[in-house]
Amino acid sequence: MSGNQAPMRERAKAFFEDLQDRICAEIERLDGKQKFREDRWEYAPSGEASLRSGGGGGITRVIAEGAVFEKGGVNTSAVAGRLPEKMAQRMKVGEGDFFACGISLVLHPRSPHVPTVHMNMRYLEVQPDDGSPLDGWFGGGADLTPYYLNRDDAKHFHQALKQACDAHDPEHYPRFKQWCDEYFVVKHRGEARGVGGIFFDYLRGNLEGDFPFVQDAGNAFLAAYPPIVERRMHDAYDDAQRQWQLVRRGRYVEFNLVYDRGTLFGLETKGRIESILMSLPPHVSWVYDHQPEPGSPEAELVAVLREPVAWV
Amino acid sequence: MSGNQAPMRERAKAFFEDLQDRICAEIERLDGKQKFREDRWEYAPSGEASLRSGGGGGITRVIAEGAVFEKGGVNTSAVAGRLPEKMAQRMKVGEGDFFACGISLVLHPRSPHVPTVHMNMRYLEVQPDDGSPLDGWFGGGADLTPYYLNRDDAKHFHQALKQACDAHDPEHYPRFKQWCDEYFVVKHRGEARGVGGIFFDYLRGNLEGDFPFVQDAGNAFLAAYPPIVERRMHDAYDDAQRQWQLVRRGRYVEFNLVYDRGTLFGLETKGRIESILMSLPPHVSWVYDHQPEPGSPEAELVAVLREPVAWV
Fold this sequence. Notes:
- 2 copies of one chain form a homodimer.
- By secondary structure, the first copy, chain A, is of the alpha+beta class.
- Chain A has helices at 8-31, 85-91, 151-166, 172-183, 207-224, 226-232, 239-258, 261-268, 273-276, 297-305, and strands at residues 37-42, 55-64, 69-82, 96-109, 116-128, 135-145, 185-186, 191-192, 196-203, 283-285.
- The two termini of chain A are 35 Å apart.
């Protein structure tokens, strides 16, 4: 490693912002109608968090009412502050100051034939109050949430992520695929959020070795998702299929608000609410006791969500 | 008190089920089009909870696609099982077996001029493992969530609840009104869920004295809410007002899934998911950075939600 390199927090932030630019350009190309609206914001934590070292901000980019994307956000942020006690316990780190930067995206297509997608890559640092050394780690993940199951799409998505993983460590993909299957679960429904992908956290101890993996995994989004959009975006759908999508989006909301660590981290660290909750779908329905008809394509999806599949 | 009286758990359950009947009849009368669908279910907790004493069930009644009510549920349940450790800590009681019975209702009217309403009354018992005496208490509350502020409606709702409180203890209403203002807060938005009402919990130590209050507070729903529905249900509204309602319903979902104890209790004790989540609105929108126009009726509502009002 060269001693001249910038600190990891700067290099990670620069990578995430560059990736944001490239992904937004590709999403605008796919959409063909709408452009992202950009909001730059400053992090101004209230109370305890503002006492020291608090600051930073983010670049929120949201697309809405597009031809392909009904709503989507591709956000970056880099913030520092006091780590809330609750978060420190959950992360199993000492109390102290934190720095967090990352990219987070969720895209909700208009057509029920095009899956919703999520991707997040992040770098965190905690400087414990007790004087122990700076603790830094990467985390991230990407997962696909179809409304109708298309096995080729699921395979393609997993294959692209696997390739990025395999270039660094043959154990990454199997481990991170399983972690994803375990993480993105709507526990009270006994269902996965979608067909999975990868999820990893607390990748620490070898930051210089892990950063290239995180870069490849982030870049893999562009190979994993846009081809699926292009395959499905022109497929016709009817009102019943749209209604199914709206009901399934309710499950997405349930996961994000009840279980998602990133969302809870954002709410608890008093992040910018509109940037955090850009992940919520534009239109959602909750229908009491909605059950897909046995043997239907809707029932086929739910069956797959109840039991993780080895896609590749 | 007569030694011949049935145990509180039986009397409470009987009261809640009778109240459910009376409320459903009144809601059907108001709606004029749809009737409640009833689902009776049995509580079959999995894992640890099923080891001892688990059982019971509930009566879920849901109305949908009505003339006045787009979706609503008026549920009762009476279940027993093992108290999850997390819940015991939150309730500050010892680990042990629990019994819980109650009535819970949420009504989502179709018109943005008719407020959403919630009411819950419950009786809980915990039998700690350490042999200490049975611990029983009442809890409950009722709150009103308008989409457009009507001060007379808010006053009427509070007045009806205050009357039920005042008949038992002059300190009840001020205390429970404040508790409500503090409880029904969408913290990350810095907004109350609505114009409040009453909220109370851990009413213990004098069950025979508190039960009549809980009965009066439950019965007060029929004086508090239906007259507001009758006043507003014929008011005309346009698409923009409907859109505002859908966005505000998103805040309702955010509160219920992120903060509401009753919802979390249900999810964590593996209650019947469809009965717990009947509280979620039928159609909801999340619009990025939605801000009401300054000086508009929408902005007037939000201003009131940011600062609790002494309605009576």
